[in-house]
Amino acid sequence: MDTSAHHTSASNPLLISLEDEKLFKWLAIGVITIVAFEATAVTTALPSISRALNGDDLFALSSGIFMALQLVTIALAGPLSDQKSAIGCFFSGLGIFVLGLTVCTFAASMWFVVVGRGIQGLGGGLIIVPLYTLIGRHVRAIHQPSFFAAFSAAWVVPSLIGPAVTGVIIDQLSWRYIFGLTALLLILALPFLIHVMGKMPHYASGMRSRGLVVHTVLPAAAAGIALTLFQTAANRGRLTMDSGTLIVGSLVITGFCTAAMLPRGTFVVRRGIPAIMVMRGFTNGAYIASEAYLPKMLQDMHGYSPTSAGFGLTVGSVTWAVGAWIQARTTNDRIRSLLPMYGTLTQAIGVVLVVFGAFQWCPAWIILLGWGLAGTGIGLSYPTLAVLALGMTPVEQNGATSSALQLADTVGAAFCLGVFGVFYSYAHVGSIGFLMGNVAMCLLIVLAVLAARRIHPFPDSPEYRRLHATPIDILNEN
Q1: How far is CA 158 from each of CA 32, 76, 248, 360, rounded to the nearest angstrom?
Q2: CB distance 137 to 395 below 8 Å
Q3: Pair 87, 200: CB distance under 8 Å
Q4: Residue 232: exposed, middle, or buried by beta-carbon count in 10 A (0-12, 13-18, 19+)?
Q5: Which residue in 77, 226, 250, 387 has the most C-beta neighbors within 10 A?
Q6: What backbone torsions phi and psi does residue 329 show, to the nearest 5 degrees?
């Protein structure tokens, strides 16, 4: 019997039993695996979908609108998870996500795919934040790194079989089955999710956020709209006064709105949680943007089939899981403190190698090596930053921090997708667009490396004391 775990559970009544913790972990992994399969399949299939529906001009928008509209519900999910119910928030998101899948399944044109992806984004924002909140609130701190490592590993199997399955579905059936089968699997998982979530202790902070609509919902909606306009302008194909004004204006609005939603000091890279938000935004955003265009680059520049190009994504997902596995088993505090820095440097080196993929003479092994390094790097840093941020946060604010982490991820991804889209669309020559887009992602990762020096709190700060507190300390604080 693990007496230390029993003592921890007795000291903190919010913690669930070890058996329920394991059950929750497996079901959460199941949901993420299903969502990961859909994401990998859609990324692989989008070039084919855009061709089938004569919507190549909407390719960038269909890729980016998911992230852009996810902002609205991510901002709302934090307060809802803290004040109302993280569980109710999760199930609401699941329902909206399935609705978006249904719209895409029966899409009559590329615009319907764009709308369906947008609805999926709204639902996705209400899924991940509650999961992070429940982990931070009900799972023992010593087990949290393994949860986030498992979430990364949940992308491996979909990435291994996703491209092949997607290719077979497109060739033998229809791309519509990609969305329809995902919706069916989530519906089948619903009874099991209801069962395990019913075992979670109810928690609500009782705190009311004044001006929730003014300070959260409206800025999130405005940022989502602005980023959608940025995605649209990025796809114009030529730079005009109107498109240039739209790009600059949408980015300014996004900046002001994001500053209102993220922790104070994020834009000046204040030490601690604000610096973590900067790192998450740039590392995740750069990875997502390069990943979105990787299959298209392999198909257009190197003649890969949709299935073969999709296997490029598999390499990154496998090495991401390897990096996450390494961080989960790193218990030395000094080494863990260096993982974000070393991970981000590794990601930067990997994307530099991917840059050469814009040239037809570049051999495939260099592209795959680069993408493998990029995956390893973000696998080391991404979950480590989540554990670090939740460790600095009081339990009654776990939802807010979880929401901020997802907001940083989503804003970063939508921004980077738009930046890559601008270079790809305005270059008019595919090789130049891929080259400039990946170079831009390298520069953004360099900014994340600089922010890595400020992610750890000052020794005498409340965040530092909370990060190194015992279970009894946490209970007394609450």
Answers
A1: 10, 29, 37, 29
A2: yes
A3: yes
A4: buried
A5: 77
A6: -100, 10
- Say how far apart CA 279 and CA 270 lie, in whole Å: 12
Q: Give Dmax (Cα) for the chain.
A: 69
Neighbours of 302 (CB within 10 A): 17
Q: How far apart are CA 242 and CA 259, in angstroms?
A: 26
Report CA 151 to chain centroid distance, whole Å. Answer: 11
| Sign (positive or negative) of CA dihedral 462, 466, 470, 471 | positive
Contact 433, 441 (CB under 8 A): no
Could you give the CA distance from residue 394 to residue 182 in angstroms, rounded to a whole number? 36
Class of residue 238 by CB neighbours under 10 A (exposed 0-12, middle 13-18, buried 19+)? exposed
Give the C-alpha separation, 76 to 410, whole Å.
14
Q: Are 75 and 227 in contact (CB under 8 A)?
A: no
pTM (2 d.p.): 0.70
SS3 274: helix
The DSSP output letter for 142 is: G
**One-letter amino acid of 280:** R
How confident is the model over 62-121, as pLDDT tens digits?
A: 766 777 777 778 777 777 776 677 788 888 899 999 999 999 888 888 888 888 988 988
